[in-house]
Amino acid sequence: MTLPRLLPISLSLSLLLGACSQTPAQPTPAPSATQPAVSPVQSRTNDALRAFAQQLARSMTDPAVRTLIAQETARQFDGDTEALYSTLAPMAAGPQSFAQALSTGVGAQNLRDLTSRVPNLQVAVRGAAWDAARTVPWVAVAQEGGDEFAPVTAYDAQGNAHVLDGRTAPDRPVVVVGVNERVDASGQVVQSAPVPAATLAAQGCYQVKLVRVDLYNDMEPWTKGKAEIWVAVKGSGIGWHGQLTMITEPGDYLDAIQVFGCTDSDVRFYWYEKDGTNLDFEISVDGYGFGIKIDDSNDFLGSTTMRKALFEGTTVDKVNLGNLSQYTH
C-alpha cells in the first residue's frame, strides 16, 4: 500500500471548493454479481497449474530454487513481484537449471508438456516478507475463471494441501503460480499509451481532466498481486481507454493530472480492473455502449455520466463510485 502523496496547495483548495458546489452523480447500477463459469479451456489450465504447483512445492526444499525465485521476482519486470516460467526455466539454480530442478521425479518431457499448457505461466511471491534462505513456502494456485475470491489451495513440500482465505493475504509468504496478466502472447509487457480522439473546434469545447482518484477496493485477489486499473472515457471528441499504472492498490491515488481530451457533450466514465484477455463482457453506462469488452462483470469498479457543464470551469467535482472516487474538472 502506498502512503498518500501531498497535492499542490492550489489543487487542494479547488478540491474543497468543488466538494461544496458539485452536482451529485446519478447512481449507476452495477452489472450482475453472478460468478462467471469456468470454461473448458480454463479448467484444463487450472489442472495444469495445480500439477505444476505441487511439483514446484516439492522443489522448494532446494535453497537454490528458492533463491532464484526470490531474486527474479524481486526484479519486478512487469511492475509486480513475479517472473515468467520461460525466463526462470534455463536459469541456474545451483548446479542445474531451474527446469531441471523441477523435473526431478516427473521427467523433463513431462514437465515441458505440463508447462506448455499454461500460456504466460508465471511464478509470483505474495503474502508476508519472505526469507528465502530459511523459509520453505507453500505454493498456491491463482486459478483462471470462476470466483476470483474463492478459497485458495496451497501445497507444502510434502504434498499436503492447505486452504487459504481468498480475500485476505496470509501472514506467511506464499509462492503463487498462475497466468501473467501484464504481458502479451509473446511475453512482452503490454504498454498502455492511449491517444485521445481528434479534438473539436476550440469554440464550445471543454477539456476533460482527471485530477485525482482515490482507490478503496481494487477487486483483485491477493493471489494475483497488484491490480491493473483501467478507465474508458467517452464523449463527443473523446475516446480515451487505458491503464492508470500509478494506481495499483487500495490507498493509492493519482498524483498527476490526466487530460482525456476536449468535448462539447456529456462524458461517460467506466472503471474496471483488467484480468487476462477473455473479453466476454460488454461495458456500458446507462445503456450507452463503449464498444469495449472486458473479462467479466466482477471486474467492474464503477461508472458515471457527467454533464458537460461540469467541465466548463476549473472547479473540481468529486464522484464516489463505491470502489473508488474520481475528481475531475
What's this model, at a glance?
It holds the Pfam family DUF3103. This protein is α+β, with helices and mostly antiparallel strands and 329 residues long.
Topology:
Blueprint: H1 9-21, H2 40-59, H3 63-74, E1 82-84, H4 85-88, E2 92-93, E3 96-97, H5 98-103, H6 108-115, E4 121-127, E5 138-141, E6 152-155, E7 161-164, E8 173-179, E9 206-215, E10 229-235, E11 238-243, E12 258-263, E13 267-273, E14 281-285, E15 288-294, E16 300-306, E17 317-320, E18 324-328
Note down, in words, how this protein is organized.
With 329 residues, the protein is α+β, with helices and mostly antiparallel strands. It folds into 2 domains: 9-30 and 192-328, Immunoglobulin-like, CATH 2.60.40.150; 40-179, no CATH class. Helix content is 19%, strand content 29%. Strand 6 (152-155) and strand 7 form a beta hairpin. The chain is elongated, with a radius of gyration of 22 Å. The two termini are 27 Å apart. The model is unreliable at 1-33 (pLDDT under 50).
